[in-house]
Amino acid sequence: MNINVFAITGNLTKDPKLTSFQGGSSVCELRVAVNTRRKNSETGEWEDKPNYFDVKVWNKRGVACSEHLEKGSGVAVQGRLDWREWEAKDGSGKRQKVELLASDVQFLGSPKDSAPTEAAEPAQAEAGEFAMAGAGAGDDDIPF
User: Fold this and answer.
1) Which residues, 6 or more positions from 18, have their beta carbon under 8 angstroms from its beta carbon?
2) How far apart are alpha carbons 33 and 113 in whole angstroms?
3) How far is 2 from 11, CA to CA, in rounded Å?
4) Can you tell me the distance from the alpha carbon of 6 to that of 101, in angstroms, rounded to the nearest whole number?
């Protein structure tokens, strides 16, 4: 039996990006920074090492994320990993990427608009909300 699940907590490195498609579906792209603690071998001090993850949240849960989150917002995300491969547009070879497809997003802290508690409830995906993801990646600045 195979298991494909993840759970992370972190902060958004940029504002959410919502894209709507013909047919009514939509996807919200989040970039989440998650710190890992490690001991610096030279100084002996503990330090944070950031890791960055691209997360996709589909349909009405994605819309909720785009309306209530912003750069710096804390989130807890659960879902599954999706591996993609494509040919580079410049013909230089194949590219690969692992994305996180969210099934549950919890907003940590206060929503950006101080909306009612509805915004703090989990945004759980429904069956069939994971559709083909569009290509694209890029580096983002650190949120803090």
Assistant:
1) 26, 27, 28, 29, 62, 63, 65, 66
2) 22
3) 29
4) 9
For the chain, list the domains and their CATH numbers: 6-120 (2.40.50.140)
Alpha-helical runs (H) found in the chain: 59-68
pLDDT tens digit sequence for 119-137: 344 444 443 443 333 333 4
- What is the C-alpha separation between 45 and 76, in angstroms, rounded? 27
Give the integer Cα–Cα distance in Å for 53 and 31: 6
Phi-psi region of 24 (alpha: psi -120 to 50; beta: other; left: phi over 0): left
Please say whether the beta carbons of 45 and 107 come within 8 A.
no
pLDDT for the residue 10: 95
**Tokens 């490195």 -> residue:** 13
| Residues 76-106: tens digit of each pLDDT | 999 999 999 999 999 899 999 988 999 999 9
What pLDDT shows up at residue 121? 44
Rg of the chain in Å (alpha carbons)? 16
